[in-house]
Amino acid sequence: MDFLEENWLDLDWSPWVPFNAPREFWYIQKAPGVYRIRPDDKDLLMYIGETGQSLHKKLAGLRQTLRRGDIMPWSDPYSEAPALWCWWVEWIADRENDSCKDPSSPSAGEPGDLEPVMLEVSSAPLDASVSGRKGMENFLLSAYRQETGESPLCNFGRFHPRYRKSTTRAESRRGGKLTNTQKDNPAGFPSISPLEPAGEPGDSDWMGLEWTVKAPLCLEHARTVGEGAGLYLLADAGSREILLIGQSADIAGRLLGLCGKDYGGREVLFSYQIIGQNVLPHNLKELEADLVGNYYGKFRRVPEFQFRGIR
């Protein structure tokens, strides 16, 4: 499985280091970059992320946040922490149950004082701008999806189906396990299948989709857009170069909202693909990452306005 290798996609990944390692954690670099988190006994990734601060500082803080097994962390400053915690606690419980059935099995820890022995991290330094790091993050996510057919367990807002998420510290609503009478968390529903690499960015069949004919981004044309959730592209009318790749639960409303924005004096065209009337948020984000990752893989950069706040 390439996504577990130390040379995955030609990055200089550190060895896999357990979150509770006292000395080995110094393998994590003191530089900005990207990282991946996995459980030690499963061939999958839980999370792929990027940071502009020291990888060592970021991941040391994250592992400290995950030390307690009795309280779900807040969703800040580490947005991935609550989701990682849910799966970790459930897997710890599974190991403890197995230990009860088989007294010879090693114990995973005591409730309320659980070491994150089941989580491991590997990191790679990346000398890049914010958009460069985010582009690489999407490239890694899209590559993982192509290899496995699904996303890491905790990216795109995905969550354990039997838990509700903690809010921020300021909102002060702690997450926890759902009762037997409560329905599954929709964020725990499965990944959507990855888009198949095909065509070139901006082509009418790019990534196997049926993009609409490009039209000027103005109120007159945006008002003709059909209802539903889906994906959209903005492109320079002159060069036809893609300026932004996006997703929305309401494509018509989103494109109307993008009319009149400042695109550096360019005349802008739009194209879109309706995915369905009701699509889960994490599924839309997965498809967007497939597109951004494919674009980054071809050009080693992201569209000009991808991470500039124009959404």
Task: Explain the overall architecture.
There is one protein chain. With 311 residues, this protein is an alpha+beta fold. The protein has two domains: 2-188, no CATH class; 206-299, 3-Layer(aba) Sandwich (GIY-YIG endonuclease). Helix content is 26%, strand content 16%. The strands form three sheets. It has a four-stranded antiparallel β-sheet. The protein is globular and about 60 Å long. The two termini are 35 Å apart. The model is unreliable at 105-117 (pLDDT under 50).
Q: Which outline best applies?
A: globular
How many strand units? Answer: 10
Number of self-contained structural domains: 2
Roughly how many Å is the radius of gyration?
21 Å
Report the span from N to C terminus. Answer: 35 Å
Helix-residue proportion: 25-40%
Write the element-wise H/E pattern from the N-terminal end onward: EEEHHEHEEEHEEHEH
Mean pLDDT: 92
- Main β sheet profile: 4 strands, antiparallel
The SS-based structural class is alpha+beta
- So how many helices? 6
Strand order of the largest sheet: 1-4-2-3
Determine the strand fraction and express it as a percent band.
15-25%
